[in-house]
Amino acid sequence: MTAAPFRHVAVIGLGLLGSSVARAARAGVPDIVITGYDADPAVRQRAHDIALADTITDSAAAAVAGADLVVLCVPVGAMGDAARAMAPSLAPGVIISDVGSSKAGVAAALAEALPGHRVIPAHPVAGTEQSGPDAGFAALFRNRWCILTPPSDVAPDDLARLVALWEAFGARVETMDAEHHDLVLAVTSHLPHLIAYTIVGTASDLERVTQSEVIKFSAGGFRDFTRIAASDPTMWRDVFLSNRDAVLAMLERFNRDLSALETAIRAGDGLALFDHFTRTRAIRRSIIAMGQDDARPDFGRSDHTGGD
Amino acid sequence: MTAAPFRHVAVIGLGLLGSSVARAARAGVPDIVITGYDADPAVRQRAHDIALADTITDSAAAAVAGADLVVLCVPVGAMGDAARAMAPSLAPGVIISDVGSSKAGVAAALAEALPGHRVIPAHPVAGTEQSGPDAGFAALFRNRWCILTPPSDVAPDDLARLVALWEAFGARVETMDAEHHDLVLAVTSHLPHLIAYTIVGTASDLERVTQSEVIKFSAGGFRDFTRIAASDPTMWRDVFLSNRDAVLAMLERFNRDLSALETAIRAGDGLALFDHFTRTRAIRRSIIAMGQDDARPDFGRSDHTGGD
After folding, report:
1. Shortest CA distance to A174 belongs to which of B216, B214, B219, B209?
2. Is the Cβ of A81 closer than 8 Å to some Cβ of chain B?
3. Which residue from A180, A216, A253 is facing B145, i.e. has the nearest CB?
4. Which of A147, A151, A156, B26 is deepest in the core (most CB within 10 A)?
């Protein structure tokens, strides 16, 4: 597709993801008009001050008027309400999408709130632990995957336009059904967040180890968990509530596997531990090979060159 | 202390940690003589080829002859044997230290293998998931903590010399007793590794989600776990076996806390989830403030500047 896939995008919700969508649209789509709205007046003011969009409006309905694409960037639990608020102003033929981390629940909420509209849910697998309109950046989606979960009756041209948009943002696009998305993300994202949230809580509640000691000696592994346990609380509350069944199913597997390693430790079974630890090392190498992480020690956290 | 704290260090074990100790000594201690030994002939050859030390010897006994400091950089389960192998060649007054990740078991093994010698166990809380003599670098310890667990009857001058050495490596030094060290590290390092090893194993064993999907969509959180689950299998087998009691005690706490979050998800208790996730965010901020991690989104993994 050589022409710009959309001429006017409305971004609803201007936090980390919404502000990144606005910036990526500005950087990657020639001549696109960008309107934006956030339910929080302070966020709207800040978005206005940093010129995040051509116009920051005082209502979702005003933001979407005339748009040929609306991207909902609100917590997944707020999608239905956000959709209902803007429904009366939607232009004919507009495509409605989102960036939520769970998809079956969002698809159902949007279908209910926007009957007859063209809804194509999306999930860019990218983010940081920061929040708010200043946290976004245009390159957030570059070299990351964006998963689209179109309904079975999607118009091929609508899908192609949304694919073109995400490719213009630098993302690689994959489509799958919403239920499979939710299962995949339960293991690659939701369960890791749940576990990180848990262990950071555990570490801050001990009697014999002080919080100051936990922080001081965090470089031994703990700090990697704290980053994802610093992610937005509202967003993640909604993710766990909306993808409950898949998360609980993955958690059951995890608990079973953790219990097996616990038994090996208790029994002094060094061979079982060694075999498990050797197997997991191979997965890391595949992630580096796929370009989904940085092989430098410490992800380049320090200044060293990796040599002497 | 203005004079160099040691004139000849013998490094036993030339993997990530041992080769980093050798490089840090070369970079930070003027005129120091460095001898090195590794049980693996291929590692010795490689260490020789890259001139990691002044002399790479064919036995631990030869490496320690004449040294006023020996640093054992072998897996914690191999400390006793390594100490016994070199015992006959130790010079009078030599200080024996190590870099093992658990300390009570190492202290006991060294005390048994080296009766009458001056043993001061140490643990630099630093590392990467890489292994081998090429993986080390002089700056590994810079701005990291090194915990010394001296026996109660340590000579103050011996302790001061070892503190001076680690400070010359760029580390910050703290002393505590071995049992407390093991409890602190169980939560800041050993439990995070155990959990990361578990979830990476879980993710690679699913029927309905392929390994390729897990790798592709790992940027959602999972990849942070794969880094620490790629750490050296022998080293970590030994850590879990030698610090078993503290690890199991922390695991019990973790399991209890995870079960509470599971209950909240099952019950749809959004308030409990939100409260927990808000609390853990504060810990992350303290770690950044203490200089123990990088606040850049993605730890600077990507090329972006964090802005637009």
Report:
1. B216
2. no
3. A216
4. A147
Instruction: List the structure tokens of B69.
Output: 């400091």
B257 touches chain A (CB under 8 A): yes
Instruction: List the alpha helices (DSSP H) in B191-243.
Output: 191-203, 211-216, 222-228, 233-242
Distances, alpha carbon B252 to alpha carbons A257, A259, A270, B246, in Å: 15, 11, 21, 10
Does B224 contact A225 at a Cβ distance shorter than 8 Å?
yes
Closest Cα in chain B to A275 = B233
Contacts of A307 in chain B (CB under 8 A): 137
pTM confidence score: 0.87
Q: How distant is the Cα of A249 from the closest Cα of chain B, in angstroms?
A: 11
* Pairwise CA distance, residues B45 & B33, whole Å: 19
Distance between CA atoms of residues A24 and B243, nearest Å? 49
Do residues B11 and B171 lie in contact, with contact meaning Cβ atoms separated by under 8 Å?
A: no
Strand ranges (E), chain B: 8-12, 33-37, 55-56, 69-72, 95-98, 118-119, 122-124, 145-148, 172-175
d(CA B126, CA B99): 10
- Residues of A with Cβ-Cβ distance to B75 under 8 angstroms: none
Among B51, B53, B107, B100, which residue's Cα sits nearest to residue B76? B100
Per the CB < 8 A criterion, the answer to whether A63 and A57 are in contact is yes
pLDDT tens for each residue of B80-92:
999 999 999 999 9
Cross-chain residue pair B187–A200, CB shorter than 8 Å:
no
Tokens of B137: 């670098």
* Paired tokens of A186: 């339960």
Which of A19, A134, A191, A202 to mutate to probe the B interface, most B CBs <10 Å?
A202
What ipTM did this prediction achieve?
A: 0.88
Q: Domains in chain A, ordered, with CATH?
A: 8-176 (3.40.50.720), 181-295 (1.10.3660.10)
The type of residue at B98 is: D
- From the CA of B151, how many Å to the nearest CA of chain A? 21
